[in-house]
Design goal:
The chain is an alpha/beta fold and 255 residues long. Helix content is 44%, strand content 15%. It has twelve helices and eight strands. An eight-stranded parallel sheet has the order 7-6-5-4-3-2-1-8. Helix 7 packs across helix 9 (184-202). The longest helix has 19 residues, at 184-202. The radius of gyration is 17 Å and the shape is globular. The two termini are 13 Å apart.
């Protein structure tokens, strides 16, 4: 059985001091009822060290730290960029790559996403590889072919051994931050197609081990319907991860 994973993507929210308070709230809310789910929080770069320090003081909290992006080069003249080794140094064990906001606002390509995923795997950080279609693509009937092509491209440089640890996150662009959510059956259809693609790439054993998340306006009011889907192993959560109580509800739903 795949252990569920719920990752909070804080996006461009929370100063370092605000992040410390939210981490403390999450830490204080953690109990053994959450032992059945992996909990990952992805704050802005400026709050990663705050997260590391806060969690060092609470050995009973199994919160994992993740980043929202990475550069594929180990070092160099890349102003404003962060390397995988830098993330490793502040205890990051996960990192989001290929989010639709990175693709749409910053022009990231499938090739760049593949380089980032490989760079993370080389240092032992788990890439959370995002995929998702626009509303236009869905209405034209091309959702499955579009997202599976994104994943094929993103995993081009990932070996079968490294693939066992990766996480896939399906986030339909039309459902991110809009309040509009894919129907559970729609999300399951795509996640099933993604698993079939992973099986083609790596074989059934590896494909069955890879966790696939759903994201896109996931919240306490709709989470239960997604938990029941066999190929959805957790969530990549935006707005609901900024409120400790809401995030804990999502974690308990998947635990």
């Amino acid at each position: 059985m795949r252990k569920p994973l719920v990752a909070g993507n804080w996006k461009m929210h929370k100063t370092a001091s605000e992040a410390t308070r939210l981490f403390q709230q999450l830490s204080n809310s953690y109990d053994q009822s959450l032992a059945g789910v992996d909990m990952v929080v992805c704050p802005p770069f400026t709050s990663l060290r705050s997260a590391q320090v806060t969690l060092e003081f609470d050995s009973n909290t199994e919160i994992k730290i993740g980043a929202q992006d990475v550069h594929w080069e180990p070092q160099g003249a890349f102003t404003g960029a962060i390397s995988a080794a830098m993330l490793k140094d502040v205890s990051c064990t996960y990192c989001i790559v290929g989010h639709s906001e990175r693709r749409g606002y910053f022009g990231e390509t499938d090739e760049m996403v593949a380089l980032k995923a490989a760079a993370l795997a080389q240092v032992g950080i788990v890439p959370i590889v995002c995929c998702g279609e626009s509303l236009e693509t869905r209405e034209e009937g091309g959702a499955l072919s579009f997202v599976t092509a994104q994943i094929r491209a993103a995993l081009e440089n990932i070996s079968a051994e490294d693939a066992k640890a990766i996480v896939i996150a399906y986030e339909p662009i039309w459902a991110i931050g809009t309040g509009r959510t894919a129907l559970p059956e729609q999300a399951e259809e795509v996640c099933n197609a993604l698993r079939e693609t992973l099986q083609e790439l790596y074989g059934k054993e590896v494909a069955d081990a890879i966790r696939i998340l759903y994201g896109g306006s996931l919240n306490p009011g709709n989470v239960e319907s997604f938990v029941a889907m066999p190929n959805i192993d957790g969530g990549l959560v935006g707005g609901a991860s900024l409120v400790a109580e809401d995030f804990i509800v999502l974690l308990k739903a998947f635990s």
